[in-house]
Write the structure tokens for this entry.
Amino acid sequence: MGRINQWLVVALAAIGFSAAQAGTLYKWVDKNGNVSYHDQPPPDGAGYRVEEKVIGDGKKSREKEDETLAKIAEKFPVVLYSVPDCGSCDLARVYLQKRKVPFTEQNLNANPDLQQTLKKKIGSLSAPTIMVGEKVMKGYVESLLDGELDTAGYPKMETSGASAGENPEKENSPAPIESGYRPTRRY
């Protein structure tokens, strides 16, 4: 009986140790391509492209997905050029976060040099402007962004698998009104 208790203690300790080692690692890439690794994301507006990786969970499939995502993000980096108090910018940011796409956000409002660079690159200033690799999208239209991310190879958004018929709350709620109009802010 004593030997079983010893094995039980060792097994529980090993499980606890591996769980304690689990965490999130952030890869920061600056505008010059310099890479650094940290245990927390960079401050807002720091201008880093960030890749997030959960470490210590022991799942090989998750690591392979992260590797694939890192390769896609390296080949087709996503940059969101935005300004404060911009509803379309907020929608684009939330969509990218929900889809778990690593992206860099650049604030056009606080950086005149960035404004000039963007004007030279795409011909005008508008917010949001989203770049997927070399593809430029002025304004936010979810279906267009979705298509560009799909083309680049980013993973699709995870769905819960429940259909509208299985969710009684959706049946009773009114259908959303979608005009297709998404205002863009121009400078």
